[in-house]
Amino acid sequence: MDFSSFLTSLATSFVIFVALMLVFTWLSRKPGNHVVYFPSRILRGLDPLEGGPLSRSPLAWIRAAFAASEADIVAAAGVDTAVYLIFLSSVLGIFVMSGIILLPVLLPIAATDNSFKTAFDTNSNATFNNLDKLAMGNVHAGSSRLWAFLLANYWVSFVTFYVLWQAYKHVSDLRATARSSPAVRPEDYAVLVRDIPTDPQGQSKKEQVDSYFKALHPDSFCKSMVITDNKQANKIWEELEGYKKKLAHAEVVYTESKTTSKPEGTRPTNRIGFLGLIGAKVDTIDHCNEKINELATKLEIEQKEADKDKQQNAALVFFSNRPAAVSASQTLHAQMVDTWTVTEAPEPRQLIWENLTKKVYERQIRQYAVYGIVFLTVVFYMVPIAAVSAFTTLENLKRYLPFLKSVVDIKAVKTVLEAYLPQLALIVFLALLPALLMFLSKAEGIPSQGHVIRAASGKYFYFIVFNVFLGVTVGGTLYTSMKTIANKPKSAVNLLADSLPQNATFFVTYVALQFFVGYGLELSRLVPLIIFHLKKKFLCKTEAEVKAAWAPGDFGFATRVPKDMLIMLVVFCYSVISPIIIPFGVVYFGLGWLIARNQALDVYVPSFESYGRMWPHMHSRIVAALIIFQVLMFGYLGLKKFVYAPLMIPLIVISFVFSYACNSRFYRSFLNTPLEVAFKDTKEIPNLDSVYAAYIPPSLKPEKTENADHLEEGHTNVSKTETV
Amino acid sequence: MDFSSFLTSLATSFVIFVALMLVFTWLSRKPGNHVVYFPSRILRGLDPLEGGPLSRSPLAWIRAAFAASEADIVAAAGVDTAVYLIFLSSVLGIFVMSGIILLPVLLPIAATDNSFKTAFDTNSNATFNNLDKLAMGNVHAGSSRLWAFLLANYWVSFVTFYVLWQAYKHVSDLRATARSSPAVRPEDYAVLVRDIPTDPQGQSKKEQVDSYFKALHPDSFCKSMVITDNKQANKIWEELEGYKKKLAHAEVVYTESKTTSKPEGTRPTNRIGFLGLIGAKVDTIDHCNEKINELATKLEIEQKEADKDKQQNAALVFFSNRPAAVSASQTLHAQMVDTWTVTEAPEPRQLIWENLTKKVYERQIRQYAVYGIVFLTVVFYMVPIAAVSAFTTLENLKRYLPFLKSVVDIKAVKTVLEAYLPQLALIVFLALLPALLMFLSKAEGIPSQGHVIRAASGKYFYFIVFNVFLGVTVGGTLYTSMKTIANKPKSAVNLLADSLPQNATFFVTYVALQFFVGYGLELSRLVPLIIFHLKKKFLCKTEAEVKAAWAPGDFGFATRVPKDMLIMLVVFCYSVISPIIIPFGVVYFGLGWLIARNQALDVYVPSFESYGRMWPHMHSRIVAALIIFQVLMFGYLGLKKFVYAPLMIPLIVISFVFSYACNSRFYRSFLNTPLEVAFKDTKEIPNLDSVYAAYIPPSLKPEKTENADHLEEGHTNVSKTETV
């Protein structure tokens, strides 16, 4: 890519961004769109536009985003979102502080040397452009100017250490503060017990759990809930809910028909066969009512049966106070370590019920199997795609689907198909990848949604780094030179370092595209807007259906974080080789931070709260990116025949030590709740009924609450202990 | 080594063994030697010879050793010794069960083939002897007879899995039973708190610890003991004890002198200068009395000062009940993970006071530094020894110590020196190695003696495996072919497998020597006997001095276990290649088990109790030996051009899975006390004064007990909670 096409691409992206911003400003002021642009505010019962539409100047959202304090963010979108913003601002901070030194120092040093000119004058000018002149590639091999580049690595690294240490401390405090707030959170009073052994005395699981925990926690044990096999109940409940929705829909249609066509109205009808296409025609309202009654009875029977006969080997155990639950969750209970596994309970809405009952060895086998599959997917993902691509050609299409021949032969269609058919498999695969990774992470047997998302995000990160970063950088060369690398692992670093500078411009364009077009779309919410209006016009009849149509969803950290990580990795790796990338990184993370704040305040609603459990994950990936950068720079300095290149080695060692120190200082308080935190501000005795009720799955709700009378004992028991 | 010299060596060893056995039978019946042969019984107040000397037939000890139940062993020598016996009997069981199948099957298969005859007939007969004919080396390459040897690996492995699984379960139960006994053990009521942060409010450490733990454990916190810097107090105390002993000695000497020389007696005198050689002559009794008074006052002052001004950043915290202490020791306390590190308290006699106050990062740095030193020691230990050997030649001796010339030139002395001087460095190094490893393990900052011994034993195991086993097997070839190995790691396995069979006879002789001579010496206790009689005759005057002279010591697991491990590794590795080694292994572990039982019942007194914490360590090393064996067999079968050799790979995988499964089932209950165990049989409320007093170091004893009045509050507090 030469310089002019780079500028063209940049300008185009910028124009699109400005256009999308204008669209956003215009559309977000229309009251009919408020549910798309301010769903979070509306759900929290706030006025979408503070001070009325007139005060909403085009840049008001920027002011609002800046003005919000961290406490506002936590209140609006939870600690996880606040931590995501800290991640963005930390990376932003690293790049700003790196840029302040690197840009004014390294650019002149590179520009005033002329390695490219001398080297390429005789060959061709094609690979030499103005951007490359500002990069490290322009410095002569073995030149003492390389000292500046070596020291730049130290500067970038130490800036990173400083920022990350501060950020980890900040997040740790944020987490502690949030966790020690006096609000009653059900998960603070519960522990998850898995791998309950078969009872030799033939007690029911419920009795077994109760007697076991009552014996070991005589003062603080309150009540238990044995996990039951709810598959059947869930199925009935979902069917029931479906009919309830259908009934509401049909009733609205009937009421409307009274006003539009004839005064007595047309009763809606439907067919009860496959997909409503075949079978007998019935009156929808009558049919639904009938079904609802029938299913409600069935559900009640099933609920009773589940509670009695379908008890599984896992349970939730409730304690009368926070410290007792924290302490229990961290204490080994059984002599046989693979029984009575006790862990902190996830939030009720995070629980993945079907994973709770998986046995300990099953979980381990699943985990390793999933790791194997992910490894194969990451490394060999091109193989099946190439195979499918070889099949999905225009010729095959014509041969196997002859009826399409006339359509395909139209010239315009043919051109498009020829361009996109080979990539179809790739596009489909990339679109399905996040779902596949979520599925795989869930299949590991992880009990909480938040953990699944972290696991999926980790897998996606590996995929992106391996395939996008390494794929683009080394490109085809890597595969052909696999043999050389296998014999001489050191040459891989050299190969990578060698091909790095050639791709700087590509990545600068990539980063710019990401923030201009990506953020433009993110802020303007064009896709959700169009979908909402289509749904509203053609599908939704009831209030609930409209609400479901504008449901904002959450941030989607599983894919969002790895994408940011890729940009971060790219900017890190080029920060010294081609410092001109730094401003683009700054804009990416600056703009990202601003827009994410806006979305946190106005749009997205978190689907769960893990109190920043994502942070150690982010932290270690930033450090990993830093180390990749340092290793590449070590290789590249070596290629430049700089004899002091080994001075990079202590820096790499320091990075590992830093990572280790951070872990040993902070990590365990993310893994387990410290007793200190659990003890803070827990004066009031919670309503343990509501704690218990929070964990009842919706399909079992009416039945299980009847059991709540047991709680009274537990409760009084507690107050007795506490008054001692 | 040819067959006849092998038999000669075996016969010699056996004769020595029989002679030592006779010596033992004869000497152990003399009442004057009872303190050497039955110290453990005497210390426990039992009659040394049950049923009087006449009933003590030469083989009575064998009957007694067999008759003792596991409970007797635990009562006599603790759980650790019982676990060591389980280790011996498990390995014995593995070898017996392996031998039952391997000997009758593999020996005929090997003997009836004749690879050696055809291969070596043309060359020489030197390396071919009758033992080799019974080994796998005698089977033709690629022969289908190798199937039997392949399957033998599976048999040995599955026997090992079975025996180890049973043993782990047994040890785990033994540990749980011992730990849940109603006896009050101080360490069950205490936790060790390290890394106490600097208090911002300027409280004393004691106040800080008390307020922190009172807040987090309001019901169960009882009392704390802040670790003080006792260096000064210890020094004074030791000096004081020394003078006390000296005084007692001098008084006995004085009393004796009254009966022997003149009726008024000779008052003993000594010089107070360097080593008692120079300086003024004083009356010993007066001098000691004077010093004792002086030091007692000094100690009292120092004790007060230590308690006030020398409080360190570590403490022992006492709880009113076992489960509370267990729970606290496993719960994360502080938000900053590197502060308030809480762990289970070691036994009072295991505490290494000077390590308690080491900070968390210091401990980690020390640990890695020690690992580095050990790695270098294991791999390069020959380098300094070779250097020293090059220096300690006869010529150098004569040159630098010319006054020895006349002595050295005597022919007999010269011969001896020429033989032993070059090996002097090696002998000294090997003698000092266990002490060096203990020192290094202690330097890691480990707070408990038992843990230090495990760590030292692990290091010694690496040393022995690397240097003795690999050293002998591969010998010089390994060092010369280092380059080949670096390029082709696979060839290391081949090289090793290739040189294995040649050394079978050497190792058979080694094993036989170990059990005949080693066990003979162990049982006859000739060295301790001689030392005791010499001391008694020339040095000991007081009762206490005599008692110290026959103090039996403990088993010395730090060196004993790795030595057994080496034999085990050798027998494992040769079990299929040369099954004739199995009977020798059986005798080694059988005899070892029998003698260890005798020593446990009659001789050794354990210096601490860790309730079988050594077992996971032993278990994982047995599995490691098994895997080394499997890998070597894989290589050797490959060398034998057996195309089904890859069938060994699943076996290796199974071994890893087995190891992993054992760990996840049992290990954590060795690391932490399960709540279940802590709750068993703790009806009585312990006397917490004695628990506290048990932890007071001897040098601080009189002072600290004064503090015990605080305990009363804690105590009553407890009973209140328990009655709720």
From TrEMBL, chains A, B:
Q: Which InterPro entries match?
A: Csc1-like, CSC1/OSCA1-like_7TM, CSC1/OSCA1-like_cyt, CSC1/OSCA1-like_N
Q: Give the UniProt keywords, A-Z.
A: Coiled coil, Ion channel, Ion transport, Membrane, Transmembrane, Transmembrane helix, Transport
* Residue ranges constituting the CSC1/OSCA1-like 7TM region domain according to the UniProt record: 366-636
The record lists the membrane-crossing segments as 6-27, 82-107, 146-165, 368-391, 420-440, 460-480, 500-521, 566-595, 615-635, 642-661
Would the keyword Calcium turn up in this protein's UniProt record?
Answer: no
Q: What is the lineage of its organism?
A: Eukaryota, Viridiplantae, Streptophyta, Embryophyta, Tracheophyta
Q: Name one GO molecular function term.
A: calcium-activated cation channel activity
Report how it sits in the membrane. Multi-pass membrane protein
Q: Where is the CSC1/OSCA1-like N-terminal transmembrane domain?
A: 5-166
**UniProt record similarity statement:** Belongs to the CSC1 (TC 1.A.17) family.
Q: Where in the cell is it found?
A: Membrane
Q: Name one GO cellular component term.
A: plasma membrane
| Name recorded for this polypeptide | Early-responsive to dehydration stress protein
Q: Where is the CSC1/OSCA1-like cytosolic domain?
A: 188-355
Coiled coil spans: 285-312
Please give the organism: Platanthera zijinensis
